[in-house]
Amino acid sequence: MIKPTEDREFPLREAHNLVRDLMTPNPWIYWTDFLFHISLGWAAFVIFLSMPLSLPWQFLAGIVATFAFYRAAIFIHELAHLKKGTFRFFRLVWNITCGIPLLIPSFTYDGVHNDHHKRDVYGTDKDGEYVPFATLKPVVMVGYVMLSFILPLFFIIRFLLLTPLSYLIPPLRKFVWERASSLTIDMNYKRGENAIRNDKHWKIQEFAAFIFITAVVAAIALEVLTARFLILWYVIAMFIFFINSLRTLSAHAYRNPGDQPMEFAEQYLDSINVPGNLLITALWAPVGLRYHATHHLFMSMPYHNLGEAQRRLVNGLSDNTLYLETVRTGMWDALQRIWGEASTNTRRASPHGIDSKFEDSIGRKKNA
């Protein structure tokens, strides 16, 4: 686990003073950005669906649809952080046009992600968005990325089958909420009973997702839609999860074994900034996520101000050394580093070393 050096403290107060005027979200930016990309995504999907498979234009339409839907979907991260009770209409429109059709309604991230930012939860066994990849065998990262190709099927099963069945079988209802209702990367994560912040009416979202996927399947059965609709939807969803899995591996150093909480500065140093450029980096880390470490410093800062915050902190801090330790030149740089650390730690690990500790912690979670 990375720690600040003993003779240097992270200049948190100075950093806050530099960016304190950047905490207010601009609704016009949210609406313009989201509506443009969700409209582009659906338009490209219709083109993708209507063209013969052999045409190169269909391939281009598929790429545009994937990245447009991906950016629109990532607004779920902003919804998790927006001040409680605000942007209600935006949340509704996001769910209707994006979250529900992609089977990721906002309740699947609401509350769950907020725990990830709690000082006593981040990086521990209770953090569903953290796996200590850097302390495990590299093959664990490969397995995590490969899951992307079956995740859309999981969400189809979750909302098409498990939703109605869970209301008929009470024990299944509890299981579905705890184990199948959260966007996390830790497969052992168990969602708390009251892990909801904004989406108090989450059951309506769940029912709407059930109605959507049921309607699609029924339309295919009645030949109103062809099976190609669901297949192409699945392909796009699969690649969205694939890109996001690589982005997730590039978002943190994942060095904490999970047996103890981390100090705030340690959490920042365990996170990663990839400023990159607006044309490429913003495609795979959209809606401000290329400034992920800065986001962990100021989790309430709206995504559209993170770039300005990055510039101010780099140029304005009296000592920006620790701040710059989180910077990577690109996704490849971030992935190479975590892969290298995992490989080195695996070689050094003894039978009672890091891997054993993690396996013990996983065992404790399973038996909890």
SSE map:
Blueprint: H1 12-19, H2 27-50, H3 56-81, H4 88-99, H5 112-116, H6 138-146, H7 151-168, H8 170-179, H9 202-221, H10 227-249, H11 264-269, H12 281-284, H13 292-297, H14 306-316, H15 321-324, H16 331-348, H17 354-367
Helix pairs in contact: 2-3, 2-4, 3-4, 3-10, 6-10, 7-8, 7-9
Describe this structure in words.
The chain is an all-alpha fold and 368 residues long. The chain has a domain of 161 residues. Helix content is 59%, strand content 0%. The chain is globular. The N terminus and C terminus are likely disordered.
Strands, count: 0
Residue windows where pLDDT falls under 50 for at least 5 positions: 1-7, 352-368
Mean of pLDDT: 91
State the helix count: 17
> What class, by secondary structure content?
mainly alpha
Distance between the termini: 25 Å
Strand fraction? under 5%
Order of helices and strands: HHHHHHHHHHHHHHHHH
Top keywords for this entry?
368 residues, mainly alpha, disordered C terminus
Summed up:
This protein is mainly α and 368 residues long.
